[in-house]
C-alpha cells in the first residue's frame, strides 16, 4: 500500500501533457492499417490528413482490441531470416504486417507499429521501456535488461488523463489501463485466469535517498502486476510482470534494444532460445471455457471466459 501522496490517479508526473507529434506513417498508411484490421472508425484519408479525426478512450480500446486480434506476438523473423534480425523499422513493420501480412513481431515491433498509427490518427502518445521480471510469485524480483516497449496515451482531446497500452507482452494487457495505482484499477489479462493492476514502489536497487541515512528512496517505479495462482498451492498472489518509469525513449533506443535481443543471448533469453507465437481471437460466449491441448513443438493453451482468447506456442 502506498502512502496517500504516492497515489496517482491517471496522470503523468506533475500532470504533464503529451504533445501531438507527427507520425512516421502517412494518412494513406493509416487508412490501410485500419482496413487490415477490419476496423471501421468512420475515418477517411482526408480527415486524417487534416488532423481533425476525433480521438477517444472508447476508440482507443477498439483499436487495441483489433490490433491484438490481427497481429500475432512472434519472433519467427529472428530465427528464419538470413539476417536473424527482427526488422523493427517503421517501414519494415508496415510492409511485413500490413502490406504483406506475413505475421507480427515482438513488443518492440508491435508497439512501434501501434505508436506510429496512433499518432497518425491524431492520438497524443509516446513510448517508454520496461524491465521484465522473471522472479517467482512471492519471491525476490529478478529483472532482465530493459528491452520491453510500452506506450503512454492521452486519448481525450482536452484531458491529460493517461493510459498504459501494451500489445506486445504475449499474455499481458487486453485493453488500455488507466495510469493509476488505486486499488480498484484492474483489468483482465489476455488469460482468463489473471487480472492486472498497476502499483508504485521504490526501486529495490536505487542508490538515491531523500536525505542522508533516511533510507527513503526518491526513485519510485511503476509495476504492472498479475494476480496469479501459486504452484502447488491453493493460494494466489500478485506478481510483478514488469517495471517502468515515465521517461520517453525513441526509435534509435528501441532499434538498439532489438539488436541486443536478436544478436545476444540476454539473460534467460526467451526469444534467443525459442520460436514463440501468440495468436488472439474472439471467443463466442458459449465457448468461453478454459482448456488446453499439446502440440508437437510445445504447448498451445486456449484461455477463454472473456472476449479475446489466446493461442500460445513455444518451439525449441
UniProtKB/TrEMBL annotation:
InterPro entries: Arylamine_N-AcTrfase (IPR001447), Arylamine_NAT_domain_sf (IPR053710), Papain-like_cys_pep_sf (IPR038765). It comes from Cyclocybe aegerita. It holds the Pfam family Acetyltransf_2. Belongs to the arylamine N-acetyltransferase family. It comes from the Eukaryota. GO terms for molecular function: acetyltransferase activity. This is Arylamine N-acetyltransferase.
Amino acid at each position: 500500500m502506498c502512502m496517500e501522496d504516492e497515489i496517482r490517479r491517471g496522470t503523468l508526473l506533475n500532470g504533464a501533457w503529451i504533445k501531438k507529434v507527427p507520425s512516421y506513417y502517412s494518412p494513406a498508411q493509416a487508412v490501410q492499417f485500419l482496413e487490415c484490421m477490419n476496423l471501421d472508425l468512420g475515418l477517411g484519408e482526408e480527415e486524417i490528413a487534416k488532423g481533425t479525426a476525433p480521438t477517444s478512450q472508447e476508440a482507443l480500446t477498439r483499436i487495441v482490441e483489433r490490433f491484438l486480434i490481427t497481429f500475432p506476438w512472434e519472433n519467427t523473423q529472428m530465427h528464419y531470416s538470413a539476417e536473424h534480425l527482427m526488422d523493427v523499422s517503421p517501414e519494415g513493420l508496415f510492409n511485413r504486417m500490413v502490406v504483406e501480412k506475413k505475421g507480427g513481431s515482438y513488443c518492440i515491433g508491435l508497439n512501434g507499429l501501434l505508436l506510429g498509427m496512433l499518432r497518425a490518427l491524431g492520438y497524443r502518445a509516446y513510448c517508454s521501456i520496461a524491465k521484465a521480471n522473471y522472479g517467482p510469485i512471492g519471491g525476490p524480483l529478478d529483472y532482465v535488461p530493459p528491452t520491453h516497449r510500452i506506450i503512454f496515451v492521452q486519448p481525450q482531446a482536452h484531458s491529460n488523463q493517461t493510459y498504459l497500452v501494451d500489445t506486445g507482452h504475449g499474455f499481458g494487457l487486453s485493453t488500455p489501463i488507466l495510469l493509476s495505482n488505486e486499488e480498484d484499477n484492474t483489468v483482465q489479462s489476455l488469460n482468463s485466469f489473471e487480472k492486472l493492476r498497476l502499483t508504485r514502489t521504490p526501486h529495490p536497487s536505487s542508490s538515491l535517498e531523500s536525505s542522508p541515512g533516511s533510507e527513503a528512496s526518491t526513485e519510485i517505479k511503476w509495476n504492472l502486476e498479475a494476480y496469479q495462482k501459486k504452484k502447488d498451492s491453493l493460494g494466489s498472489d500478485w506478481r510483478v510482470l514488469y517495471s517502468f518509469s515515465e521517461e520517453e525513449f525513441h526509435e534509435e533506443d528501441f532499434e538498439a534494444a532489438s539488436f541486443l535481443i536478436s544478436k545476444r543471448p540476454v539473460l534467460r533469453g526467451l526469444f534467443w532460445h525459442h520460436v514463440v507465437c501468440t495468436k488472439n481471437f474472439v471467443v463466442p460466449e458459449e465457448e468461453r471455457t478454459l482448456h488446453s491441448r499439446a502440440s508437437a513443438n510445445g504447448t498451445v493453451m486456449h484461455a477463454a471466459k472473456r472476449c479475446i482468447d489466446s493461442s500460445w506456442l513455444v518451439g525449441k
